[in-house]
Amino acid sequence: MSTVETSEPRVSTRSVYITFIFLGVAMATFASRIPQIRDHLGLSPSELGLVLLAIAAGSITSLPLAGHLVHRFGSRAMVGTMAVMLGVSLSAAAIGYHFGVVPVVVALYLYGFSTGAWDVAMNVQAAVVERKIGRSIMSRFHAGYSIGTVAGALVGAAVVKAGIGVTWHVVLACLLVTGAVVVSVRGFVPDETEPEPGGGTFSALAAWREPRTLLIGVFVLAFALTEGAGIDWINIALIDDYGTTAATGTLAFALFLAAMTVGRWYGPNLLDRYGRVPVLRALAVIGLGGLLIFVFGPSTPVAFAGALLWGLGASLGFPVGMSAAADEPSRAPARVGVVASIGYCAFLGGPPLIGFLGDHYTVSRGLLAVAMLLVLSIVLTPALREPDRAAGAARSDLGG
């Protein structure tokens, strides 16, 4: 029995890391080929934004259902099933772009559906493992996602440089991702599904009525837009506005992702020492500064420096928001589903908004829309305070 108790957290932790890493690989693999797909289809920035909107539409469709589905079927079944759907849909997009925009839009909708449900399920499992370990390691799981994106982006840059076609690249990557994840989810631990104190279960509708959950959702929305804008538009902005090559733009994208990885890996130490609120406020300021440097920088090296700070600042907002939503185990699936639904609105509105602004100004100037939400996130950080710290603050206010 003792062997099982000591080995189970290690196995489940490794399994969760693998699911985060390979979701990142899949995302970066597709993102690294966006410029080539855009050029082949002859899309303007606003048209590209509308095509990418299909991903967000798919995610928004699945997210309201994800909490209920995870509660019913478990995170293990959900992640495994969605990994298969992701592999099929991205492969379809990589083949379909040869035939026009419509096959790409349909495939990206299904891709978005799979990533939304996958995201909620793996975050619920990650929160279970985090509680079993007793440390704030959620951001390290998300660092695994960032490691996957960096690996996918670097491979993408090499593949673009080598002139390898989009279809071969994406289909082979999808086979790797699906196979690895379907095997890894066998190590997941059972979800914590204990009933509410009065009996029954906590519904998603009830979570939508909680002010704290909604504030966390808006906070995650701000950081999701900050992260998503970098993922979707950094390489396009370097190519179009700074006049770099496609390979150079992809390297800036990889640098952004590398900075996010560093922030997420070292974040737990800062969070355990200083708490969520001061760390997240500091990172929001860093991200805002990096974004402004990227937009207004006079040269490509300065833009690279801005991308680095932008990625570092964006690193912890999404994972810490998921962790805050899952503070109470019995209510975690519903609350994570609500927060993810709000956060993913950034992926719904972000691409067309920045694409529209890119048509009328430049893509770089369009990214200034992100800055306003980063300022808002600084105001919202108290909603993410840890339960024990929040209780301590309440006692202090009462003179306890």
Structural commentary:
This protein has 400 residues and is mainly α. The chain has 2 domains: 10-190, MFS general substrate transporter like domains (Growth Hormone, Chain: A, Up-down Bundle), CATH 1.20.1250; 202-386, Growth Hormone, Chain: A (Up-down Bundle). Helix 6 (138-162) runs antiparallel to helix 13 (317-325), helix 9 (211-241) packs antiparallel against helix 10 and helix 10 (246-274) packs parallel to helix 12 (300-313). Residues 1-6 and 391-400 have low confidence and may be disordered. The longest helix is centred in the N-terminal third of the chain and has 33 residues, at 101-133. It has 18 helices and no strands. The protein has helices spanning 2-31, 34-41, 45-73, 75-96, 101-133, 138-162, 166-184, 204-208, 211-241, 246-274, 276-296, 300-313, 317-325, 332-343, 345-360, 363-366, 368-380, 387-397. The protein is globular. The termini are far apart. One of its GO terms (molecular function) is transmembrane transporter activity. Residues 12-389 form the Major facilitator superfamily (MFS) profile domain. It is a multi-pass membrane protein.
What's the helix count? 18
**Overall mean confidence score, pLDDT:** 82
The number of E-state strands comes to: 0
User: If you compute it from the alpha carbons, what radius of gyration comes out, rounded to the nearest whole angstrom?
Assistant: 20 Å
User: What's the CATH H-level homologous superfamily of the largest domain?
Assistant: MFS general substrate transporter like domains
Low-pLDDT windows of residues: 1-6, 391-400
Order of helices and strands: HHHHHHHHHHHHHHHHHH
